[in-house]
Design brief:
4-stranded antiparallel beta sheet, globular, single chain, binds magnesium ion
Length: about 250
């Protein structure tokens, strides 16, 4: 899983280097597609069926979600503009094992609000990994993630959650970024051997979201900006190990 995760990290690094005003989201998709192909890795997003009836399967190897888009944006001819933030999410399977990671990038100069949003969301992911060193169950981690976000006056997106990951991208358990009744019932122990895709999604305004008519793109209903960061993290006998870093 580390090797799959490394390829995903390299793909996001290529995106980071390419992002600039005027670049299209479709060009970023092509970069990642070529990277996976060159390493004989199978992209995980392309062909995923829509949860909405009659809508097409996901057509690309990355999700590219700009500004008020939270997740599942479809890359295409849209050109990035100075001041945009763009969340890129991608995953691949290599030799039977999966990696999944996301990062939200600034395009040119962004507003102070958007910079705070990116900082808080990235720090939420970092604190979750740190907290896994001592927490016994996931709800302890989720509680701290949600408190951190709300303490900065921002919202945790609740409609989408992280997940277990292994030979499939989406495995049990569900990994929410907040504590609810359902998590209290389905809480799980953080034990060696478990691998989780942890993916906080945070909004500057409302946590409420809707799906656009394309059947995929999720945006905030107040259309204020959202951010998304994700790592694939294995729990080992030495503690959490992030599998989607460039180097370790
Ligand atoms: Mg992902
Ligand atoms: Mg994921």
């Amino acid at each position: 899983m580390r090797e799959a995760g490394r390829l995903v990290a390299q793909a996001l690094d290529k995106v980071r280097q390419a992002i600039a005003p005027g670049v299209t989201t479709g060009e970023l998709n092509r970069l990642v597609s070529e990277h996976f192909e060159a390493h004989k890795a199978v992209p995980l997003f392309k062909g995923v069926p829509s949860s909405m009836r009659g809508k097409p399967a996901f057509p690309a190897v990355i999700c590219a979600s700009v500004n008020e888009q939270v997740v599942h944006g479809i890359p295409g001819s849209r050109e990035l503009k100075d001041g945009d933030v763009i969340a890129i999410d991608t995953g691949c399977r290599l030799a039977g094992w999966c990696g999944d990671s996301a990062f939200t990038f600034a395009v040119g100069r962004i507003s102070e609000d958007k910079q705070r949003l990116l900082d808080v969301t990235r720090q939420t992911l970092e604190l979750s990994i740190e907290r896994m060193k001592t927490a016994k169950t996931w709800s302890e981690v989720a509680q701290d993630m949600a408190e951190f976000v709300r303490g900065h006056g921002m919202s945790v997106i609740e409609q989408f959650v992280g997940h277990g990951i292994g030979q499939s991208m989406h495995e049990e358990p569900q990994v929410p970024n907040y504590v609810s009744e359902s998590l209290r019932k389905q809480d799980f122990a953080l034990e060696p051997g478990l691998v989780l895709a942890i993916e906080p999604m945070v909004a500057l305004g409302t946590k409420n979201v809707r799906v656009l008519p394309d059947g995929w793109t999720v945006e905030t209903t107040d259309r204020r900006a959202a951010a998304h960061f994700e790592h694939t993290v294995a729990i080992t006998s030495d503690g959490p190990r992030v599998l989607t870093l460039l180097e370790d």
